C-alpha cells in the first residue's frame, strides 16, 4: 500500500507546479522541489534532494500503519526542512533513526509542533512499553495541503489558500485510499474539514454536512465520526498560533493529555 504513496510523491508531488500555474496569489513553496526561503543554503538542489530522500525513507519505515495523522499544511522548520509532516530534522534523525541526509552534527533543526507531537508519542510509547521508533512506525503523518503557505514577506506560515486546498485534495484522497487506516486523527479545523469532505462523513452518517459541529464543538462533546471502516477523530492543531478563538484557547491547554488519551485508547483496544 505504501508503494502507491511512494509512486504518488515521486511522479506527482515532487514535481507539482499546479498552484504556480493556477493564479494563486498566495506565496508558498513546494518543499520537495523548491528552496526553503528561511533556510537558504549554497546548495538548494541538494537540500531538495535530501528532503525527498527523508520522505522516501520515512515511507519505507512505516509498518502496519494503524493511524493517519493529518495536519493542515507544512511549516518552514518542520516538513519544509525535513520533508516529513510534523517531523523536524531532529525527530527524523534522532527519534526515527533515518539517515542524516543534511549531514548536521550539532544544532539539529527543531520545530514546535513536531516537538509537541513527538513528546506525546514518546509518552504513549513509554506507557505501551515499546520503543519510540517502533511505535511511530504504526503512524503515518501527512498534511491536507502539501506546499508551505507563506505570508507576503515569505517569513512566516499562514493558512493554505482555497486553490492550494483544492489542488492537494486529490493527493490526500490517494494517500487515504492507499493506507485505508483504521483511524484518522485530524489536527486543525482545515484538516478536519478536508477529511470530512473526502471521506463523505455526512453521507456515511446519514446527516447533512452543515449539521456536523465545528471542530471545537466536536472536541467538547468528544465526538468522532465513522466513514466506512475508518474512525475520524478531530483535534486542535498543536501550534498555539492557529488556535486563536475563545473556544480553542480554552481547549488548547489539555491538548497533549487528550491526544495521549485517545492514542492509548486506540492501542489498548
TrEMBL record:
PANTHER family according to UniProt: TYPE-5 URACIL-DNA GLYCOSYLASE
Sorted UniProt keywords: 4Fe-4S, DNA damage, DNA repair, Hydrolase, Iron, Iron-sulfur, Metal-binding
Iron-sulfur keyword on record: yes
One Pfam family of this chain: UDG
Uracil-DNA glycosylase-like domain boundaries: 64-247
Taxonomy, superkingdom: Bacteria
Keyword Iron: yes
Protein name (database record): Uracil-DNA glycosylase
